[in-house]
Amino acid sequence: MPSRLNTRPVLAVVTVGALVYWAELLLRLAQTHLFPIPEPYALGLLGFALPWLAESGRAHHVLAFAVLVVCLMAHHRASRDGAA
Q1: Are 50 and 42 in contact (CB under 8 A)?
Q2: How far is CA 45 from the centre of its chain?
Q3: Which UniProt keywords apply (predicted)?
Q4: pLDDT given for residue 1 in this prediction
C-alpha cells in the first residue's frame, strides 16, 4: 500500500511566496496611488532594503523560479511515491 504524500510543506512554501509577492504589489500600488511617490521611485519593501534588486526585476524571476522548482520537486516525489 503506497504511503500518502505529505504536501503541506510544499503548499506552505508556495503560499508564503505568493503572499509576499502580493504584499509587495499592494505596497507598491499604495505608494503610487495613495502617497505622492512617482512610479519609478515606488520600490516597495524590497526596494528599501535592496533597491538594485527591485529595479531590475530579478526578485520576480527568482520567486517564480523558486515556486517552479518546489512544484517540480513535489511532482517528482509524488510520482516516485505513487509508483512504489
Answers
A1: no
A2: 14
A3: Membrane, Transmembrane, Transmembrane helix
A4: 43
Amino acid 62 reads V
* Domain ranges (residues) in the chain: 8-83
Question: In Å, what is the CA distance from 70 to each residue of 11, 29, 47, 66?
Answer: 9, 28, 25, 6
One-letter identity of residue 65: F
Residue 13 buriedness (CB in 10 A; 0-12 / 13-18 / 19+): middle
Cα(47)–Cα(23) distance, integer angstroms: 13
38/32 Cα distance (integer angstroms): 6
Displacement of CA 38 from its chain's centroid (Å): 25
Look-up: residue for cell 503572499?
Answer: 19
